[in-house]
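We were asked to recover a plausible sequence for a given structure. The inputs and outputs are reproduced exactly as logged, with field labels preserved.

PROBLEM: sequence recovery
POSITIONS: 363
GIVEN STRUCTURE:
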């Protein structure tokens, strides 16, 4: 966007966190404003009480968290005028009411379809969380039908999500704008005897993925190769610490500056997701690093991947164990799939390639 417009940003931060505007490259934006969200304790009891109240109200958690700052948004926007306003995430969709006052067009960038995210979490979970996700799914459908038609354009990450959105908001203009990364060189690192799983481990699909992999897959792999390590690459590893207690061979990195560089060190990247929506940046990062990926069908959804060519699909513990073990045992197979994955990244998932899908919407 900065290639075509002067940019103003409104950002959110958690109470106590540093200002995210400090991490912006110099000169990228004209001005930025940061809103501090009310403090929310992450203690288990506080989390349960907070989400229990949301369940009773039928208020989806992230929508409830991020859409309560209307007066602050209005104060920041007062007296301004824009050609285009972009809202990131459905959680912030209600701010269309403030944005519409100052922007000629309003675009909503849907990283996920929230109702599908909760639906898949309900299918993969057990009571009582599955029941809660079903209630939040219904609430999201209601809110999506309310807010999606209000926008000039809806951006989704895949054709799968485009179909879902068109059912929720018939007639609304939808553009598939793929998740993408800047073009980068393949980092050069020696392979380590490591399997990598990257992401924000506070995000509940990643929590479920860790629990599935550590319980159902990892013990069998490490029994075959005792020197093997499982590396969890990304922030908030404490959110999955309870699943790692007493399990051998697992290490965590915490936040990293360059996920692609970290993934370039592993022999195999795994994406054992059993819930979620949108498309997974963790796969694109592994592809950019030219690393082979083993993923569930849901984890690979929306990318148009070619199973057996640019990644391996595995939907059961047996399939995961067999697929990862085969790749660990064959440098040639790792190279073949990694090279094909890198080609797919370069051809379809760079910023410049993805931007072409927006021709006419922003130019």
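RECOVERED SEQUENCE:
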């Amino acid at each position: 966007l900065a290639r075509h417009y002067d940019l103003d940003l409104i950002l959110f931060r958690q109470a106590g966190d540093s200002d995210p505007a400090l991490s912006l490259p110099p000169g990228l934006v004209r001005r930025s404003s940061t809103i501090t969200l009310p403090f929310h304790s992450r203690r288990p009891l506080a989390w349960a009480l907070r989400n229990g109240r949301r369940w009773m109200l039928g208020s989806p958690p992230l929508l409830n968290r991020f859409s309560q700052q209307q007066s602050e948004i209005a104060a920041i926007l007062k007296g301004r005028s824009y050609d285009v306003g972009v809202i990131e995430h459905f959680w912030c969709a209600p701010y269309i009411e403030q944005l519409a006052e100052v922007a000629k067009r309003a675009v909503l960038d849907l990283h996920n379809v929230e109702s599908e995210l909760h639906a898949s979490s309900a299918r993969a979970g057990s009571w009582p969380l599955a029941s809660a996700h079903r209630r939040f799914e219904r609430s999201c459908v209601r809110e999506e039908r309310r807010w999606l038609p209000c926008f000039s354009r809806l951006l989704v990450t895949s054709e799968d999500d485009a179909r879902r959105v068109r059912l929720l908001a018939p007639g609304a203009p939808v553009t598939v704008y793929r998740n993408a990364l800047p073009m980068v060189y393949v980092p050069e690192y020696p392979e380590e005897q490591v399997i990598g799983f990257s992401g924000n481990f506070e995000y509940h699909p990643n929590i479920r993925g860790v629990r599935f992999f550590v319980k159902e897959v990892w013990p069998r792999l490490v029994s075959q190769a005792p020197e093997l390590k499982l590396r969890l690459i990304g922030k908030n590893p404490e959110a999955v610490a309870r699943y790692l207690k007493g399990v051998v061979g697992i290490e965590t990195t915490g936040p990293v500056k360059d996920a692609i560089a970290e993934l370039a060190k592993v022999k195999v990247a795994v994406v054992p997701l059993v819930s979620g929506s949108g498309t997974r940046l963790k796969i694109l990062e592994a592809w950019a690093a030219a690393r082979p990926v083993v993923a569930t069908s849901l984890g690979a959804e929306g990318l148009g991947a070619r199973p057996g060519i640019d990644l391996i699909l595995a939907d059961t513990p047996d399939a995961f164990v067999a697929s990862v073990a085969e790749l660990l045992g064959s440098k040639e197979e790792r190279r073949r799939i990694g090279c094909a994955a890198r080609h797919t990244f370069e051809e379809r998932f760079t910023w410049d390639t993805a931007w072409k899908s927006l021709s006419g919407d922003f130019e």
